[in-house]
Write a structure and sequence with these properties.
This protein is α+β, with helices and mostly antiparallel strands and 330 residues long. The protein is built from seven helices and 23 strands. A hairpin with a 2-residue loop joins β22 and β23. It starts with 12 loop residues before the first helix and ends with a strand.
């Protein structure tokens, strides 16, 4: 009588990467093949999400690893789970050869179970890039456009992007260096605006519930029906009305170089940005502190850096419990 077959061990994501790229050794290839033989649905999902079909062009394909793994994790059969692997929230770029994966962003570390896909609209968009508090990511789209996605933001890419369609959707804040394409203008959609460009450098701030802002470093951009030129900023209120002003554009796009520039604004006005930048909640124990004005250039850092900045700038006492920072007047 033959002995019962032993369960096949779930392969690691690293081994699957090598297997799909054709770089796994014979033993690893055999093990993954045996696993796929027993889990045919899983093989289909993995190949669909992690090994896209490439055209004959030299275009690159990009996707969010964290969203892919979350999707697979939710659909595993019979409660089966791959071993937890601590993955980076960074986004990866896969070249046409499919042989090399390279990190092109910065970010925190989190487990698959903790990924938030709340805003993903899978039926409308082929790819989604997301960042969380205290996290940024640099993305190169397949038309050559470079995007720096700021903290707690999302960029949605439609099917067929880079050919006749160059429209993306943004929630949050991002800086764009757009590659010129004569036949297909680059368009960024937000909750309040339709932003059309031909080739320029600009940033859009469109966090839910906040006034939108478009800052143009070079070139021109049409915000709805209003043209915004070099070194101009468009402010869009909740009714969709556009107001164009001259302002310090470099201050507005400092995040694209890893810094937050605050210039003579009340501390209470800066709190939301500080909380996103450092992934904390800040409470002012004395409301009068909120009226104190702040001038500072902050770089990507730790909560301890934030505490030190608050103490030195405002001569206050700062107490922290986990990610709650409370500021007291001395």
């Amino acid at each position: 009588m033959s002995s019962p077959s032993q369960p096949v061990e779930h392969p690691s994501w690293d081994d699957i990467d090598l297997y799909l790229a054709g770089s796994a050794d014979a033993a690893t290839s055999r093990r993954i093949s045996e696993y796929f033989d027993k889990h045919t649905e899983m093989e289909g999902l993995i190949r669909k999400h992690l090994q896209p079909s490439f055209s004959q062009s030299s275009s690159d394909v990009m996707w969010s690893t964290e969203n892919t793994l979350a999707s697979l994790h939710e659909r595993m059969e019979d409660g089966a789970k791959f071993p937890h692997r601590w993955i980076s929230s960074r986004f990866v770029r896969l070249g046409v050869s499919g042989a090399v994966l390279a990190v092109i962003g910065t970010g925190l570390w989190m487990q698959i179970d903790e990924i938030n896909t709340e805003h993903i609209e899978a039926s409308s968009f082929a790819m989604t890039y997301q960042t969380h508090n205290a996290q940024q990511s640099t993305i190169v789209l397949n038309d050559g456009t470079r995007v720096v996605l700021n903290v707690k933001s999302a960029l949605y890419i439609p099917e067929g992007f880079g050919q006749e369609i160059r429209t993306v959707k943004l929630e949050g804040e991002a800086y764009f260096e757009v590659t010129h394409h004569g036949k297909a203008p680059f368009i960024v959609e937000t909750e309040q605006t339709h932003n059309r460009v031909l080739g320029t450098e600009f940033a859009i701030r469109a966090y839910p519930g906040e006034e939108e802002r478009v800052s143009v470093r070079s070139g021109r951009i049409a915000v709805n029906s209003t043209v915004v030129g070099k070194q101009e900023v468009a402010m869009i209120d909740r009714a969709g009305l556009v107001r164009v002003v001259k302002d310090d554009v470099e201050k507005m796009i400092g995040f694209s170089e890893g810094k937050m520039i605050l210039r003579n604004i009340p501390l209470k006005q800066a709190l939301v940005d500080l909380e996103r930048w450092y992934d904390v909640r800040i409470v002012l124990a004395n409301s009068a502190l909120g009226e104190t004005r702040i001038n500072a250039t902050l770089f990507t850092g730790t909560i301890e850096d934030l505490e030190e900045m608050l103490r030195l700038t405002f001569d206050v006492r700062v107490e922290r419990e986990s990610r709650l920072v409370t500021v007291y007047a001395e």
